[in-house]
Structure formats: structure tokens, C-alpha cells
């Protein structure tokens, strides 16, 4: 039997795996669109850092997560 903390951790892990699967199933152009949308949301002083250190897939995942959690 799982404790409430373990149950929540398992639910979060499963949800993140679903989001990763969704991003992996997108075409390159769809991923690029999501990544560009996310970059426009980030304050300008952090954009260069993110573009230098994250991949297009990681930026797309950030956008999907942002839509999922915040609704925008």
C-alpha cells in the first residue's frame, strides 16, 4: 500500500511520462512551433540562456507543461 506522498509522486511521474510521449510524437515543425511559443513567454533576459542550453524538444515540453498547468 502506498502512502499519500508516494501516490502523488507516482501520479506526477506518470503524467510527466505522458507529456514526454506527447512531445516525442509531434513532428519537428509542431515541436518548433511550441518551442517558439514558449520562448516568447520567457522574459527577454533569460531567452538567450534557454536557447543556448535547451533543445527544441525540451522547450516544447516546457510549453506543453505550461499549457497543462497554467492554462496559457
Overview of this protein structure:
The termini are far apart. 85% of the residues lie in helices and 0% in strands. It is an all-alpha fold and 72 residues long.
Secondary structure: elements and pairs:
Elements: H1 4-25, H2 28-41, H3 44-53, H4 56-70
Record keyword descriptors for this entry:
single chain; 85% helix; mainly alpha; 72 residues; elongated; 0% strand
Give a brief description.
85% of the residues lie in helices and 0% in strands.
User: Rg to the nearest angstrom?
Assistant: 14 Å
- Helix- and strand-based class? mainly alpha
Count of helical regions: 4
Low-confidence stretches: none
Largest sheet: number of strands, sense, barrel closure: none
The helicity comes to over 70%
Mean pLDDT: 92
End-to-end separation in angstroms reads 36 Å
Number of strands: 0
Question: Outline, from the CA principal axes?
Answer: elongated
Strand proportion, as a percent range, falls in: under 5%
Order of helices and strands: HHHH
Amino acid at each position: 500500500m502506498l502512502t499519500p506522498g508516494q501516490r502523488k509522486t507516482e501520479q506526477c511521474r506518470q503524467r510527466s511520462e505522458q507529456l514526454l510521449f506527447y512531445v516525442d510524437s509531434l513532428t519537428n515543425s509542431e515541436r518548433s512551433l511550441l518551442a517558439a511559443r514558449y520562448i516568447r513567454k520567457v522574459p527577454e533576459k533569460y531567452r538567450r540562456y534557454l536557447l543556448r542550453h535547451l533543445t527544441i524538444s525540451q522547450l516544447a515540453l516546457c510549453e506543453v507543461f505550461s499549457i497543462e498547468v497554467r492554462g496559457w
